[in-house]
Amino acid sequence: MDIESPAKLVELLDRQAYLADEGLATAAFLALRMGRPLFLEGEAGVGKTELAKTLAALLEAPLIRLQCYEGLDAAQALYDWDFARQLLHLKAAEAAGITDVGRLEGEIYDRRFLIARPLLKAIETQPSVLLVDEIDRADDEFEAFLLEVLSDFTISVPELGTIRAKTPPVVVVTSNRTREVHDALKRRCLYHWLEHPAFDREVAILLRRLPACTETLATQVARAAERLRQAGLVKPPGVAETLDWTEALLTLGARELDPGLAAATLGAALKYREDVATVMGNGLLGGLQGHG
Amino acid sequence: MDELAATMTGFARTLRAAGVGADHERTRNLLKALDHLDVTDPGEVYWAGRLTLCATPDDLPRYDRCFAAYFGGLRAVSTRTATVSVTRHLATRDGDGETGDDDGTAAPATASRIEVLRHRDVARLSEAEREEVHRMLALLRGGRARRRSRRFEGSHRGVLDRRRTIREALRKGDVARLRHRRHTTRPRKVVLFVDVSGSMAPYAETLLRFAHALVRSEPRATRVYSVGTRLTPITAELRHRDPGTALNAVSKTVPDWSGGTRLGEELREFLTRSSARGEIAVIASDGWERGDPELLGTQMARLSRQAYRVIWVNPHKGYADYQPLTGGMRAALPYLDDLVAGHSLAAYEQLSERLAHA
């Protein structure tokens, strides 16, 4: 596929119903052109993961996802030997009277007994989009390890040798910034900080994503979201939440946002009890529809 | 170097002067990125620079200012050379009669005397009593909390070590026994910041002796910095076996005894040059911040995101009526895991205990 400029990428992403601004489009464009990982940082729900999914759809490549968590290790991220099948193979060999250790060893450390975890899978699949999601949740040692893989897109398996990517996968690394990620890793990447979308863009996203949504409703929801984000909540709603909320409203047949419906569906936008209490207590839902 | 490269290198230099970590590798990345973009389009140049030269949201406003200044025809002036004035602010030892009578005869320590001494404020002790406290500090061996390392070792319990089991099966022709393995552990690192400013002078020596005991017990997992108006690494000095020699070496190294405290700036320097990732960060200070408390707040936030635990040791915390009211203390408070006392031997023993079980 020929993507000659960031503007062209905006257009292609739009066709996939993802509205990217100039910054994000330039970031993704450079990531594709330069073969560098894209490091997306920003609050939860601003569309980091969604971008990876959209890029995969756009490039018609499989999305390979590595969800990070504390204690994530090589066996989960890179590869693992298929222990059970190796043992079976040994048993079968024994039954057949094969005792040549050298030959057996060559057989059981064969590629077919290797289970590819996301990083190895991404390196072996061409083309592919690798999503390393929420890197801030993994241990810092894992970053060093990821850096090694992302530097030259090779993985070495002691028993097999080095496995190299013919063409490197498109890599998107996301972080919610619950902790600082090491600078060396960021230096390998293009760094982009994603903000909540501006009001107009959010309205556009709602209309683009939810064809059943009326302009009035989209405007009112976006306005409400803007206000909720300024209310000092534990977890301000991101675009993901506004989309869920609007969808909930549409399911209930709403054409406008009235306080009753808003209160009934608020759980789609706010995920903390304290936040719901704050919003209800402040009467923040009261004047919602007036300014549409 | 062509004109574009020269311009961008100059821009990166401007950014570095403003505190953005736009190093050479990042500048090279920028030039590579510009190969794919239209360099006559200011929007694309802006984004190429922002995507390759910045690394945190904090960099973004600085980047915007520098971009406007540099490409708007106006070069940003480096503000890094601002001089830091050191205000002397003399330590007054509290000689309030009750401990003034320094008899000089180091009476043999009895259990009950030590017990009393353990809870007294070190700033109010006589010379002889203080020496006794220091001797006991030197004996402090609190141990250190352990963290799981990525390495494995063979073990009777733990998860199945498939690789070793298979290897053995290969050698013996059958699975004779299952091998297990588990993660090894290593001591959790500690980074300690000792405030040596004027207001902390009565506690500085005791704190440094405590630091010495920490370094001696876990030399590879302890780092110590003195803070005041300058951030000074003093771990190497504290490695001397003898506390007296170590403290002498420290006193020669630290340039800013009894000045003011600019902890915010110093933490920023520390976090720029180094990091406290996964470590226990301990700050020993009374929080009399002379710098901008807001800056201290943002740096504490950064520190708390990196560190495993952030512990603040405040000598005044030992008093029942203590309230964290100083500007620095208030700015730091939201980011602390613990605020502990640091005025007596007992307080240091507790802190040591905390580091052993954090």
Q: Can you count the beta strands of chain A?
A: 9
H/E order of the elements of chain B? HHHHHHEEHEEHEEHHEHEHEH
Strand count, sense and barrel status of the largest sheet of chain A are: 5 strands, parallel
Radius of gyration of chain A: 24 Å
Number of strands of chain B: 9
Structural class of chain A: alpha/beta
Average pLDDT, all residues of chain B? 82
The average pLDDT score of chain A comes to 89
Organism (chain A): Nonomuraea terrae
Protein name (chain A): MoxR family ATPase
GO molecular function, one term (chain A): ATP hydrolysis activity
Pfam families (chain A): AAA_5
Task: Tell me what you see in this structure.
The complex is a heterodimer of chains A (292) and B (358). With 292 residues, chain A is α/β, with parallel strands linked by helices. Chain A folds into 3 domains: 6-70 and 123-194, P-loop containing nucleotide triphosphate hydrolases (Rossmann fold, 3-Layer(aba) Sandwich), CATH 3.40.50.300; 79-112, no CATH class; 199-279. Chain A has helices at 6-15, 22-34, 48-59, 74-77, 83-95, 101-108, 118-124, 140-152, 183-188, 199-209, 215-229, 239-251, 259-265, 273-281, and strands spanning 38-42, 63-67, 79-81, 114-116, 129-133, 154-157, 161-164, 170-175, 190-194. In chain A, a hairpin with a 3-residue loop joins strand 6 (154-157) and strand 7. The two termini of chain A are 41 Å apart. Chain B folds into 3 domains: 3-71; 111-143 and 188-357, 3-Layer(aba) Sandwich (Rossmann fold), CATH 3.40.50.410; 148-187, no CATH class. Helix content of chain B is 43%, strand content 14%. Chain B starts with a helix and ends with a helix. The model of chain B is unreliable at 74-107 (pLDDT under 50). Classes of the chains: A alpha/beta (292), B alpha/beta (358). The A-B interface holds A 5-6, 22-23, 26-27, 29-30, 33-34, 36, 41, 73, 81, 83, 86-87, 90, 94, 99, 101, 104-105, 108, 139-141, 177-180, 182-183, 186-187, 190-193 and B 21, 23, 25-26, 29, 32-33, 36-38, 43-44, 47-48, 50-52, 54-57, 60, 150, 160, 162-163, 165-166, 169-171, 173-175, 275, 277-278, 302, 305-306. Chain B: It comes from Nonomuraea terrae.
